């Protein structure tokens, strides 16, 4: 077929419908990796009570694993205490087990009436170092996801490159790289902020 004349907009940026690969989808994949890290970091705070510390822990409930926030409500009482109200009293033991199993948190919940009380230990240097190591690990995981999104999309582009004008392919490649660099720098700054917070 005859090539459609490309709109004269230089080849710095392609409209989504002109790109041979789905730039929006690639951007979303990278965005998800950054969100994953943001959420993971929300659950890592040293010695400061926040519901996010526990909400994503996996609890064995009715024969399958589910996030703690689906079976319990976590509230903060003071700077060093979390209260966990379990919706189904039969699950209290399972929720308690999940909290104890979160080894990096080092928590010892105890039951009072129908709720679990979770005192937060004062952070030691060792705890802070362990949290920082955990953060770096999560950041590496996010970076791997971003790199994978970039590799997949470049391979996809390569497969289509025979039917795509060279300047379009080149422009598309540049945009993928830009999305990648942007996501990577956001991961780096999230990590930097979190390390500063944990170290203080």
Distance between the termini: 63 Å
Low-pLDDT segments: 1-11
Percent of residues in beta strands: 5-15%
**What is the total tally of β strands?**
6
User: What is the succession of H and E elements?
Assistant: HHEEEEHEEHH
Number of helices: 5
Look at the structure and give the mean pLDDT: 86
Radius of gyration: 23 Å
Record the strand order, biggest sheet.
3-4-6-5
Major β-sheet profile: 4 strands, antiparallel
- Helical content stands at 40-55%
Q: Classify the secondary structure makeup into a structural class.
A: alpha+beta
| Shape category | elongated
List the helices and strands and how they pair.
Elements: H1 23-42, H2 52-55, E1 58-61, E2 64-67, E3 72-77, E4 81-86, H3 92-101, E5 110-112, E6 115-119, H4 125-160, H5 166-199
Helix pairs in contact: 1-4, 1-5, 4-5
Question: Nutshell version of this structure?
Answer:
The chain has 200 residues and is of the alpha+beta class. The protein has helices spanning 23-42, 52-55, 92-101, 125-160, 166-199; strands at residues 58-61, 64-67, 72-77, 81-86, 110-112, 115-119. Helix 1 packs antiparallel against helix 4 (125-160), helix 1 packs parallel to helix 5 and helix 4 runs antiparallel to helix 5 (166-199).
Give a description of the structure.
With 200 residues, this protein is α+β, with helices and mostly antiparallel strands. The chain is built from five helices and six strands; from the N terminus they run ααββββαββαα. The strands form two sheets. A four-stranded antiparallel beta sheet has the order 3-4-6-5. A two-stranded antiparallel sheet has the order 1-2. The N terminus is likely disordered.
């Amino acid at each position: 077929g005859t090539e459609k004349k490309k709109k004269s907009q230089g080849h710095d940026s392609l409209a989504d419908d002109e790109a041979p690969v789905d730039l929006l989808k690639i951007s979303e994949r990278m965005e998800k990796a950054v969100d994953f890290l943001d959420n993971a970091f929300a659950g890592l705070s040293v010695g400061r009570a926040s519901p996010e510390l526990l909400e994503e822990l996996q609890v064995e409930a009715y024969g399958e694993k589910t996030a703690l926030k689906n079976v319990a409500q976590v509230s903060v009482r003071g700077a060093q205490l979390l209260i966990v109200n379990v919706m189904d009293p039969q699950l209290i033991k399972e929720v308690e087990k999940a909290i104890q199993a979160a080894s990096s948190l080092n928590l010892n919940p105890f039951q009072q009436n129908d709720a679990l009380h979770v005192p937060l230990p004062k952070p030691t240097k060792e705890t802070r170092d362990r949290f920082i190591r955990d953060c770096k690990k999560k950041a590496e995981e996010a970076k791997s996801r971003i790199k994978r999104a970039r590799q997949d999309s470049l391979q996809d582009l390569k497969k289509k490159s025979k039917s795509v004008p060279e300047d379009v392919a080149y422009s598309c490649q540049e945009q993928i790289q830009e999305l990648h660099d942007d996501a990577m720098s956001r991961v780096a700054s999230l990590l930097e902020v979190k390390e500063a917070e944990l170290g203080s």
